[in-house]
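Incident review: delayed structure delivery

Summary: a single-chain prediction request sat in the queue longer than the usual turnaround. Root cause was a stuck worker, restarted by the on-call engineer. No data loss occurred. The affected request and its eventual output are reproduced below so the record is complete for anyone auditing the incident later.

Affected input:
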Amino acid sequence: MTNFGAFIDLGGADGLAHISELSWQRVNHPREVLSPGQEVRVMVVEIDSDRERIGLSLRKLQENPWDTIDQRYSLGQIVNGPVTNVTPFGAFVQIEEAVEGLIHASELDADPQTQPSDVLRPGQEITAKVISLDRQRQRMGLSLRRVTEDEQQDEQLDEQPDESPNPQPTPQQEQEAAVGEAASPSPDGGAFPNDSTSTAHETATSDESPSRSPSDDSVPPIVTAPIAEGEPMNEPAVVVQAEATAYGEEGTAQDENQNGMEVEAVC
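Output delivered after worker restart:
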């Protein structure tokens, strides 16, 4: 067991499983994954006869979470996770097992002079926004600054008063209002403001009606008037004209030139 990997006894020959081939997630030391004497199942990924080296891999037998990363995450999505590593150029955040995202130093704070170590520390739980996603290169870009900016914009919108204008009447409501005004009684008590026909007829009738005594109040008056020849008989009528309108409404490929042989061995 070394810092760069683990040697595995294949039964007469030793193979090396590099630290990068132990798991899809970040491994700082092989002891995080393996222990001396542990039996493991590995895949042969390289054989170098001249240098007498055999390359092995554990992660090739595991499902690569980056193969379906774009089915679980999208640009603009808000994610949570702990900070796993802080570097001068940014900070790494674990989004899920074997998937990490990088918050570049420029995406930490609005102040460009802010250093990653001034804002974040390993183990700190944070909320970030996904700003880039590269399945082939197994890279996810995150932003801490844009989450803060979005929250500030939401607060400003909540503080603004509601200044919505008064609702304007629809054309159909205006048409109905116009018809209602035309049918309303006139101030002088007449049936309609422009009912000249009805008024003239009532005047002529009252002038030609015979006088009645008080005792004749219970008898309806009989009105007779001559009709000139060829003149049509006009009955008093009121006509209201209106118009009705209808409104419608990333993983790194490995050299598997040895046919992907799987073997069981002991560390």
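Verification: The longest helix spans residues 145-159.
Action items: add queue-age alerting; document worker restart procedure.
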